[in-house]
Amino acid sequence: MTIHKEGYTSLALSILFIFVLNALIQFYMPQAHTLKWIIYIFSFLFFLVILQFFRSPFFDISTDETTVLCPADGKVVVIEETEETEFLKDKRIQLSVFMSPVNVHVNRNPIAGVVSYFKYHKGKYLVAWHPKSSTENERTTIVIQNSEGVSVLFRQIAGAMARRIVWYVKEGDIVEQGQQFGFIKFGSRVDVFLPLGSNVLVNIGDVVKGGRTVLAELPSALTDVTRNEPAAKAVPIESLSTPTEAPVTDAEPMNVKNVENQEDLPLVIDHPKAKEPEKPAKKPAAKKPGATKTKDKKE
């Protein structure tokens, strides 16, 4: 467990505030022992809240290109089909995670790939669970496309207390799954927009952990077996009609002259090449010019 780099300034200011407050109480009200103990307890609790808010725990991250990791600690508050209108402009499954002030506020990449889109939006500071906070609050929009061409869009959304969103990515960056991409201070929300057909593995109200909880399986994971099967080749109709017979050659129609096989003639005639027996009738055709001359002489 360490302190996140975004908390160094806040912790320093908190310590300074606590020191000044206690010094003033000690200097101006040295006999107010009850008040001093109240201030001591308040100072200690205040410091613990700031300290735990900026904590950054260490843990092993299991990566899988077919799954979507939770981008932040918190509670699942939305799972619904909606229209994503900013970049993807198609129907998606929206999954939202609300981060309370006591949660770890480190944000992590849900998938690995290339950052294909990034934009920061100035906006309002509605409470993070408000339906319009996803489109009207201060926020960032990030899209990562994995090696299979599947895109996942997600947003950091500032809440009523959170007045600063931090991000560490830009368009064109190659990122790893579970790697830190940003930080939001003092209560916020993260929306993830999954492709239709994704297998969602959490329910509304579930407590999830950033970088550890698997939110869903991407559609490519569900259809991977089907996609890898080779397509069946089309079988010619001719081969299906006579699967066991040898192909008929040009010499076969010559067997029609055999008197013993005259009973088989109807079968041969049905074949497209059965017209070949007419060839012997062409031989006397060469004598027609002579016959014509004989007729001319008689005339």
TrEMBL record:
Keywords, in A-Z order: Cell membrane, Decarboxylase, Lipid biosynthesis, Lipid metabolism, Lyase, Membrane, Phospholipid biosynthesis, Phospholipid metabolism, Pyruvate, Transmembrane, Transmembrane helix, Zymogen
Chain ranges passing through the membrane: 7-29, 35-54
UniProt superkingdom: Bacteria
Enzyme class: lyase
Positions marked as site (Cleavage (non-hydrolytic)): G187, S188
GO terms of molecular function: phosphatidylserine decarboxylase activity
Catalytic residues in the record: S188
Cofactor: pyruvate
Residue ranges, compositional bias (Basic and acidic residues): 270-281
InterPro entries the record matches: PS_Dcarbxylase, PSD-A
PTM summary: Is synthesized initially as an inactive proenzyme. Formation of the active enzyme involves a self-maturation process in which the active site pyruvoyl group is generated from an internal serine residue via an autocatalytic post-translational modification. Two non-identical subunits are generated from the proenzyme in this reaction, and the pyruvate is formed at the N-terminus of the alpha chain, which is derived from the carboxyl end of the proenzyme.
EC number: 4.1.1.65
One matching Pfam family: PS_Dcarbxylase
Pathway: Phospholipid metabolism; phosphatidylethanolamine biosynthesis; phosphatidylethanolamine from CDP-diacylglycerol: step 2/2
Residues with PTM Pyruvic acid (Ser): S188
Subcellular location field: Cell membrane
Cofactor-binding details, from the entry: Binds 1 pyruvoyl group covalently per subunit.
UniProt-annotated stretches for the region Disordered: 233-299
Membrane topology summary: Peripheral membrane protein
UniProt similarity note: Belongs to the phosphatidylserine decarboxylase family. PSD-A subfamily.
Function per UniProt: Catalyzes the formation of phosphatidylethanolamine (PtdEtn) from phosphatidylserine (PtdSer).
Assembly, per entry: Heterodimer of a large membrane-associated beta subunit and a small pyruvoyl-containing alpha subunit.
Protein name: Phosphatidylserine decarboxylase proenzyme
